[in-house]
Amino acid sequence: MSKKKRIIVITDGDEYARKTLDYLANELGGTCLSYLSDNPTVVTPDKVIRAVLKAKEEPVYVLIDDAGIPGVGAGEKVLLALKDHPDIDIIGAIAVAAHTKNMEWTRFSFAIDRYGQLTANGVDKEGVSIPEIGRINGDTVYSLDQLDLPIVIAIGDIGKMHGNDDLKKGSPITRKAIELILERGEQFGSIKRKSPSTE
């Protein structure tokens, strides 16, 4: 019996998110399917599943984005297909906040504000804490909240947050979110992180 492919879902697919996740996959290990991401998502669930199953390194980072489309958009259809696949295991998700008009929301395990601090409060697109405890608004989180995922980390807009998550700084907020998911994966023996470079 083959092992399931472990993936991390990120609910953002714009250019900043693609560049950030490509960089962090190289730094932390894994395969980023940034070439399949878009804003909004246009790729089919079948194509994403095939790419996940062919990926050589884990975790596999899958970026989905509904760009404000209400309800279950193309990105969330990909999410649901991944969750239902018998050979794929979603080990965690990064829920990205947005100024969504349709007020989709999701609960989360932890949030990280734009200063890198863990908080029980939600965060907005700029990574600023909001009064809401335990949930955030986002474009692509409607179905995320319906799934029983091991860990969901809420953050502001990837690669932005008033420059605090800039790629030139190593995207520390997004990096911390991934590290929290990987630490949980290590704790339960589902995945191992890339060893730090000795160069």
From TrEMBL:
<dbReference type="Pfam" id="PF14097">
    <property type="entry name" value="SpoVAE"/>
</dbReference>
<dbReference type="InterPro" id="IPR025914">
    <property type="entry name" value="SpoVAE"/>
</dbReference>
<protein>
    <submittedName>
        <fullName>Stage V sporulation protein AE</fullName>
    </submittedName>
</protein>
